[in-house]
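Quick one: structure tokens for this chain, please?
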Amino acid sequence: MAKGDHLFDCYAPPPLEFTRGDGAYLYTHKGERYLDFIAGISVMAFGHSHPKMVQTVQEQSEKLWHLSNLFRIPGQHDLANKYCEALPWAGKVFFTNSGAEALECAMKTARRYHFSKGTPERIDILSFQGAFHGRTHATINATGNAKYLEGFGPALPGYVHLPYNDHEALKEAISETTAAILVEPVQGEGGLRPLPEACLRGLRELCDEHGILLIYDEVQCGAGRTGKLFAYEWACGPDGLGGHPDIVAAAKGMGGGFPLGACIASEKAAAGMVPGTHGSTYGGNPLAMAVGNTAFDLMHEDGFFDNVTKVSNFLKQQFEALKDEFPDVVDELRGKGLLCGMKLKKPAKDVKNLALANGLLAGTAGDNVLRLAPPLIITEEHVREAIDILRISFEAARKMDDFEA
């Protein structure tokens, strides 16, 4: 074991260490610059060292960091009001430190809803193959991926996994023990697969028909990443309803790099969550709430969402050109907004490493997908730079020996 190497062996990062960031770029201690198109896995919504975010942390750190929820935290009420005013169906918010915690709260809220209505047998959470809902014990069971479950004991009851986008299988699975349907409007780890807007509206109708709750996991695709506050909103009418959930789990970009998540629910869905049913020591602390309020305000500045849509459309056009230029490397385009990428015919991990060697940070996802989730403040010039690097990387990938990804 290397000196000082006392970390769990859960990660295998490259031998690269960054010491500072500025906007869409990261820098090593040697001053080497990298274009960051993964943004902490869809987290750094406003890039690195955004002046308003830095100012917020500096000012709040000199006032108050932590209280616990034994006391009233005004910033929680301010931020909850902002989200509920922006989402016409929403009525209650529980703040967490992460997306997995937000999902835990969402599933507990759904089961507690049915318990409080006198139907405690309704505990089943229906989810879909290819999903990723977190790394806690409950969320790996909700995900259902055998790789994540291996070695952690028997699968928990109350989780039903269905084929992705199979309407008939979903209808057949609903029973008297069903509590909720859990789905990502855009699958992240599962290969950047957006659920069609008609399907989201159909899910809403199905849940209303059977008296069950609809939970959206927008941990990765929310916080403006698709050009709206939440990705599901593309399926809604002008009133913000139609494809809306009863509960949405959010995190990542909503803190702009600071650990922050939220379970947002309708008044009806949250009715069973009374004192003593759930809690968090750190969730919603004053420092996190100051950052979250600033992040929300930045997202709602004039033109912010429009710029995400504009730049993402430009990026998609460039992807189309790459696909035409490299038909032996690119299979198909994936994603929505600035959660996007390409399914490749060459190993995505190798292409990611080629991009890294040329100064571009990218990620991978299931189904051999090269994943990009850049800061939402990027410009078309950043896109051109990324495309130039991808072109170099694809040229190198062409020369690699073929083997199954």
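The chain has twelve helices and 17 strands.
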